[in-house]
Amino acid sequence: MGYIYAILNYLRTEKARHDVFDYFRAAVIMAAAMAVIRIGLEIFR
Question: What predicted TM-score, i.e. pTM, was given to this entire model?
């Protein structure tokens, strides 16, 4: 239970908001890169 409490405390900090934004941005960039690669493979097949 202490682990969950520590995570919840972390999520309330300014650093957590910054980190979550960075993780979301990285996920969007990776999804876009995968989409471009897939489209490129479909075009050149």
Answer: 0.70
